[in-house]
Sequence to fold (814 residues):
Amino acid sequence: MSSIQIRFLFITAFLFTILLNYINAQEFNCADCHEVSIDKSVHKDAIDCQGCHEDVTDEEHIDKGVKKVNCINCHDDKEKSVKADIHHRLKIKNAPNCVSCHGNHEIVKPPLENSLKSKLYCAKCHEAKPILKAYHSTAVDKSNCLACHKKVDVKLTLPSSVHKNLECSDCHSFIANNLKDHPENLKSTKKADCYVCHGEIAKEHSESIHGIALSEGIDDAAKCWDCHGSHDIKKVKHPSSSVYPTNLAETCGKCHDNPELAKKYDIGIPTPGKTYKNSVHGKLVEKGRLDAATCTMCHGVHDIKNKVQPTSKISSFNIPSTCGQCHPKESEEYQKSIHWIRAKKGFRESPVCNDCHSEHSIQSITTIDKREESKKLQEKTCMVCHENPRIAERFGISGGQAKQYQDSYHGLAVMRGDKDAAMCVDCHSVHKILPSEHPESSVNINNVTKTCQKCHTNATPVFAQSYSHKTQNGTASKIENLIANIYFWLIISVIGGMILHNLLIYIYEIRKKKRRIENEITIPRFTKSEVIQHLLLLISFITLAITGFALKYSQTWWGELLKMFGMTETARQYIHRGAAIVLIGTGIYHVGYLIFTARGREVLKNLIPTFNDVLDAKETILYYLGLRKQKPQYDKFDYTEKAEYWALIWGTIVMGLTGFILWFPTIVGDWAPVWLIKVCELIHFYEAILATLAILVWHWFFVIFHPHEYPMSLTWIDGKMTLHNYRHHHEKHFRRVVLEWKEYQLGKRDYKRLSNSTLLFTSTLKKHGLNPDIIIDSEIDNDPELKTWLEEKLNSEEKEKNKGRDTQSQNENK
Fold:
């Protein structure tokens, strides 16, 4: 058979096959069995049933089955993008196919002509948020992103993330679609598309305080990546996950411990993350107790709400349930208490769990030192509310129960550290606290005996009912008031009588001492001017101390007493400031006295501290310790008087300056720092305490309580001291006076060169009809040591003069 014949037969067979298929097609119609139609489909003019179902040519497909339609046969340009899409890369179960999105027989509109493609196709599954990029678009290659985003955390952490199989464009679809015009500062809603995959979580988050804040444009609110991380997201149960229990405090603290954010958004509780770490819950979690309370356990995970939102886990109405997750027994007991009954009714004063235990700084009260923790709870919680007069007034109770408890044996013993004495929780229970009228209350009349028997095993009903915060009945109240009044007046009369009795003795002894002094030789210690200066200082200082502390301690018994005598705040101000003027005026006069008078200059010279004062102090201490046989000889002013004098000068300057600023605070303008007024207030207060205590402890000891001076030194009244006392305490200065006077008697010192002290000493003796020569010679003759000292001094002076004369003669001879 020739080649032409073979070709003819092949063409004939091909044409015959086509003809046969055409005949069969005309006989086979899909609509006979299937009611579907493609008349409304975009395929109606382009293809028939066999165009997609190529293997269906006759009715044999009913038994054999049909092959799955492969849209790629026609849409081969989409094959690559379909295989590269996120659903297939992550091997998601029941991943979407062509039919899932486009439908099958009624594909009504070409995708390119649909402006709402993502809503029409993706929203079938992604209800929370549709995908932002075209589904069939080729994913942006990761290398394109990393070319700019070279941060180490992206390159190193992404491979270990739960999203390691994702492409950059899967999460950052908005950016992927805007690569040419890639904005730098995107809103949080466009940075990443977590909601696309996590729809249910997204719904919860959108209703949380964070989600609401984000919807209001507050970009600082927590986004998914703020809590879970961005490129290093780990599984929640992975120890390195930022939301793993041991890491939660630090994760939440990134925002809530940030002082700038706390101030910007008025976050009420400062540094909750750091505080939580030091709490009993934080310490348990740190030790590996992952079932202990964490941020998410109390606040929620994605549904975090603030206290005022009705479904908030930390709302006052939900707190018992929240705490009850771990503490069911305590929660159940609390929900039977009067506190919860009133809290449910909306009384904000009634405490819930966190009002007593705090929120983040909860400490354990089940430790070895349980009683100490109970004491802290009592002092910082129970007393705070039950001492509040406003709360007592609002709820129609007398108040003062907490104070009455503190004044009782139990309260006083607890405050002193007795761990066996009864505290609030011992009598009233811990969580199931009920009023005494309630039949289940531990302090109900029928139960109180049993309560007392926990400590007092032999307690009787009378004993148990005798202890209460308030008087039991009217008869008891009358008896208590009668006893209190009797003792009040008994104390006034008895103690007042004792004071008057001892005052008479004290005055008598002072007068007796004054008469004794008058019979002795006295010499001046202070001039009349100095006595007046001291008197003004004394009056003004005491007045300032009383009126100053009356402002700070107005609620004390003596503060109330001053009010009873008419010292109102206005009167106190004028008296205080008037005394300040007297003190400052006296100080200014004293400075002038020191500078412009001979007596003042000599006083100032003798008041200047020297190294001998240090030696005197050392030798004095050794003497009183029994380590030295003799006391040192002091000059006109000893080291104690010098220290006190310069402390007075310093205190007057400090009090004067700070007091002036507090008196006229508006003078503090832009020239001063903002803290000046408050610091002046502190300095003024503490300097007042220091000065007052110094006067009481130091000055009054030496002039009143010192055994040698008791009952009182009278020098401050007339400026005089007996010659004996002067020598006893100021021997060194007395010797200098004696030496000067003897030099004057011997013609070795001119009268004009005598010191002011020597002139005052001798002139005072003359005014009293005494001869200074006789008095001084008598003292010398009766004191061999003084006589020897004087002779040595005069002889040494004579030798010095002779030596000077010899030197002068030698110079003249030369």
Summary: The mean pLDDT is 84. The CA atoms of residues 105 and 448 lie 84 Å apart. Residues 474-518 form the longest helix (45 residues).
